[in-house]
Amino acid sequence: MTAEEHFGRLERLYHKANIQSLIKGSSIAVNHGQAELTLPVDPSYFHGAQAIHGSIYFKLLDDAAYFAAASLVQDVFLVTSSFQINLLRPVSSGTLRAVGTVRSKGKSLFVAEATLYNEKGKEVAFGTGQFMRTAQPLETLEGYG
Q: Which of 19, 59, 107, 143 is the S-S candidate for 13 at Cβ 3.0 to 4.6 Å?
């Protein structure tokens, strides 16, 4: 399988995940060691002060970093083993964009970072995650194979 086919399968896997039924309108583009996601802001994602809840920030950052790392692994599923997030400013309109890149890769552990931007390109959050290889073959996952 070519790298481009793998990236396309990862994008399908992202969209097929059950959680995506709760997060409407997101998009993803996966490349070698990098992933970019976008999500239109929706009031259903707001906390009590009418801005995006931190759980949405986390999901976008984790997904961007995760799929950047997963782009380098064509045999097994990765899982997030830890993630550090920093929230910088609230967002209540526009479109969010998360960009993830791989910082380091080992035999079984990958480190990737992600930055979240508002529609004006201003940084609103960032994070770093560790991602571990599992024994589950990617081919067994609905949406990938």
A: 143
